[in-house]
Design a protein that fits this description.
Length: 290
């Protein structure tokens, strides 16, 4: 059990790093293209990175789903998740959006208790409340704070991410990792492409290299996040997502010369502290059952 949890945590570290670089590219795209078109480009660009290795190794049969309606539900949640996330990125720095998004692991712990019957102790529920207070601190209107619309969009995206993660956890009990990743990207790409068709904006030739890079980062992140939730409980691997805040601060500083305000950092500290507490409690609980 311990080795599987360690595998899940390491996979989540890799996923967070890959998604952080992908998100920086999505922020670039959000300034030029409508949200649904950005989702389409992100999803379709990732598919070759998934399909070619499977074709090369003769494992395309792994793409066949056994619970198609759960795959459809997850893809629909994913469109809402990415759409609201891109809206938030368009109007706010990466680290500021991540500050709200850091509440997602705590939402996963709460939703896992309600829908997957995973045990969450009273202390963890208290931590979830502390994390929510941190989100309120981040979202309070201030001249140097997060724009209200961007903050609310990030919060909706975080909730959708938590829901999608739990559906993925259910799916990985019966599905191959490739099937979970392919259905998510394929269905999301199909739906977003239809929605983007009317307002399609011609892609700048200079952006195609960035589109390919986003696809690569997205495929790596999607694969490893699925591996993470397959190998460890949601409340154990999800808090590793807090490392995204460090990536966000660094990428904002390097590419946009922006640093987060003290209020956003204070709210983030509450959310991260709550998440770390939940992670430590869950790991102690795992150790006591071995």
């Amino acid at each position: 059990m311990r080795s599987r949890s360690a595998t899940g945590v390491l996979a989540m570290f890799v996923a967070v790093a890959a998604f952080s670089f992908m998100d920086a590219l999505l922020k670039l795209f959000a300034a030029h293209y409508p949200p649904m078109q950005v989702i389409f480009l992100r999803a379709v660009a990732s598919l070759p990175f998934l399909l070619l290795p499977l074709w090369w190794s003769g494992r395309l049969a792994e793409l066949k789903p056994t619970r198609p309606w759960l795959h459809v539900a997850r893809a629909l949640i994913g469109i809402t998740m990415l759409g609201t996330f891109i809206v938030a990125l368009r109007d706010a720095p990466l680290a500021s959006v991540y500050s709200v998004y850091m509440f997602a692991p705590l939402l996963i712990a709460a939703l896992a208790a309600w829908f997957l019957a995973e045990r969450v102790e009273p202390g963890c529920w208290a931590a979830i409340v502390v994390g929510f207070i941190g989100v309120i601190v981040i979202l309070q209107p201030r001249p140097d704070g997060l724009p209200v619309a961007a903050g609310l969009a990030a919060l909706v995206s975080a909730l959708c991410y938590a829901a999608a993660a739990l559906v993925a956890r259910v799916l990985t009990r019966t599905e191959k990792t490739a099937a979970v990743v392919f259905s998510f990207l394929g269905l999301m790409g199909l739906a977003s492409g239809v929605l983007a068709a009317n307002g399609w904006v011609a892609v700048d030739p200079g952006h195609w290299g960035f589109v390919a890079a986003a696809g690569g980062f997205g495929a790596v992140g999607q694969h490893y996040i699925t591996v993470a939730f397959k190998n460890a409980p949601a409340a154990v691997v999800a808090p590793v997502e807090y490392t995204a805040l460090l990536w966000g601060i660094g990428l904002d500083w390097v590419f946009w010369s922006v640093t987060p305000s003290g209020v956003i950092l204070a709210g983030s500290a509450l959310v991260v502290a709550a998440g770390v507490y939940v992670a430590l409690r869950e790991r102690r609980a795992d150790a006591s059952t071995e």
